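ARCHIVE CARD
SHELF: 3
SLOT: left
DATA:
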Amino acid sequence: MVSQINNTPPANAGNQVKKETVEQTNQRQQVTQQKQAGATPQPTAPQAKQDSVSITPQAKQMARLQEKANNSTGIDQEKVEKIKRAIADGKYQINVEQLAKRIMQFESEIFRKN
């Protein structure tokens, strides 16, 4: 009884056998085998889930088109050269009605946005 007052274990406490579950035994054996094989022991606790990203085919296509648009100048060089030659030769003619129509169309678009 004196040993219980001093918070020391009873004399027969050293004879108690620690009980291990089957799962704990298996985990301990796996870690031992991995150490012997030179491998890093795998953690026995479940690992936290990691975030993942999945890109749809449509998003991939959009990225390709955007990259293509960013790399191109948007200028039809063949058409520019054709117009330059026509101007130099004095053959370039301006359709004033079409030009006026497009100017009005452009201005109306600007005013709609503001």
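SLOT: right
DATA:
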Amino acid sequence: MRTRQPAHPGRILKNMYIKPLGITITMLADTLKVSRKALSMIVNEHKAVTTEMALRLSQAFDTTPDLWLNLQKNYDLFYTRKNSKGWQAIPKIETVLEPT
């Protein structure tokens, strides 16, 4: 199980794409054809990357949608494991194969 907090995809977007390319959130939002507010929420780590956004980001930056979705999945799983305990009470289901 992962012990170190994974980066939110918005942090990756900001630090590895927006800043190095010298573009603004407004410029990228226009390119992606999304609202500045929606993109800003992702960049500031207040909103998740959806499958639609992953496709748009992958098209704009010549990456794969899986990159963005895996970043989001890793982030979500880390925080769910950390903050939710209900899943730990679920018993394992054992399957018994009968000889044929």
